[in-house]
Amino acid sequence: MLTPVIDYFNSISAMPQELVDDLLKLTNIKEFKKDDIILKAGKVSNHTCWILKGLVRHYYLKDTEEITTKFLWEGAAITSVFSYYTRKPGNENIVALEDTTLAILHYDQMQYLYKTYPAFNVIGRVITEQYLYMLEIEVYNLRKSKAEDRYQFIVKHFPHLLQRVPLKYISTYLGMNLETLSRIRGKK
């Protein structure tokens, strides 16, 4: 079941068999049903997870409104970055938008792999670089002044989200209300 993660890691840097064996031994597979909470705000994020199947949403509460910060799907690594790296409680909630299967690695086990295997350090660095690259693109897009431009970014780069994610979540991700999003979509 962990084969996609192993293949992805190997595409970044060839892993010695001992590292593969440790990953297989240390990583747990867990199933979440649609709407299950994977991480609750106020808790420390103790795990990095890779999505083997499914889709998740990160969000925080602003007063009583849920504000979506990201969507992640098959192949993506998920965690509350602030909480995971500071070891402090975070503000993000992570919820399954579909039935989701995760490969889960505890923070302490991740640190062990970093200390033990130079190849895993390379893999971690490249994944972090990819995350930062995508984060910069998202931040740039979400700061565009025109709501239609923000929506077109989703259409161009992540069209599958329009079939998989309720519009109410896409609207908060794009920083607009549902009525504005519906009006923009109606112009097509």
Keyword list:
2 domains, 188 residues, 4-stranded antiparallel β-sheet, alpha+beta, Jelly Rolls, 9 helices
Question: Could you explain the architecture of this structure?
Answer:
With 188 residues, this protein is α+β, with helices and mostly antiparallel strands. The chain has two domains: 3-143, Sandwich (Jelly Rolls); 144-188. It has helices spanning 3-12, 17-26, 81-86, 107-116, 118-142, 147-157, 159-164, 167-173, 178-186; strands spanning 28-32, 37-39, 47-53, 55-62, 65-73, 77-78, 93-96, 100-106. Strands 1-8-3-6 form a four-stranded antiparallel β-sheet. Strands 2-7-4-5 form a four-stranded antiparallel β-sheet. The model has no long low-confidence stretch (mean pLDDT 92).
What's the topology here?
Elements: H1 3-12, H2 17-26, E1 28-32, E2 37-39, E3 47-53, E4 55-62, E5 65-73, E6 77-78, H3 81-86, E7 93-96, E8 100-106, H4 107-116, H5 118-142, H6 147-157, H7 159-164, H8 167-173, H9 178-186
Antiparallel strand pairs: 1-8, 2-7, 3-6, 3-8, 4-5, 4-7
Helix pairs in contact: 4-5, 8-9
User: Which consecutive residue ranges, at least 5 long each, have pLDDT under 50?
Assistant: none
By oligomeric state, this entry counts as single chain
Helix percent reads 40-55%
Compute the CA-based radius of gyration: 18 Å
Number of domains: 2
How many helices in DSSP terms?
Answer: 9
